[in-house]
Write a structure and sequence with these properties.
Distance between the termini: 45 Å
Number of strands: 11
Helix content: 10-25%
Largest sheet: 8 strands, antiparallel, barrel
Structural class: alpha+beta
Length: about 230
Amino acid sequence: MQFIITAILIASTACLALGQKRPEFTDEQLSQFSERDYSLQQKIVGTWFFESIGQNSVHASQRITYFENLTFVCDYRISSAGSVRFRRATGVWYCLMGWFCEVETNSSDDRGPSRMVRWVYDSEADLLKTESRTGVKATLSRGTNVPETFDQSVESLDEKELEKAFTERNMLGFVAEDTGKLSDDGSPLFRWILKSALLNNKDGQSGKKEKKTENKPAQTDGDKPSN
């Protein structure tokens, strides 16, 4: 409750600085805000999965765990036909007047702090439907919680364990398969296959299919896809 009141006071001060009328809230309204946010936080705690494919055919798989102490860990596998890389981000999250906010404070690629604010719609227990302030909608699916021994440090991302989790949910992304053939310079040729549940459904909610790309030579060491 105190956190909500403090945040609202800060927002009110910002309104004054912009020359806007300061909003007024009754104790009853503040209590309602607090109760809704507490209920929303209880729902969000746990592990969620999400995948997307950009217009440039870059696939991103995410596993996000929101802990009760209002910290989070988000693990990514980002792939395209020719490369695969992994990323871990950590930070803090909270709910404020119905908005789901998270602030990334540390990451494996040293990107600067970033913030995401989304509205959460009432949804099923295993689905988290959100919409950003710019109108971008997303649906996260609840997964098995990470074990208590889960290491949250940025340096401790287990790539093999993460790929196993994504494979089980048919959202691994692009993977390279050896064709058994060699390029002109003698390096192996790979066939890149997209493994994603998004392929059968334009709204990205379901489906199981594999998409194959043209054979391409490996990008690193002559025999492995680049990371």
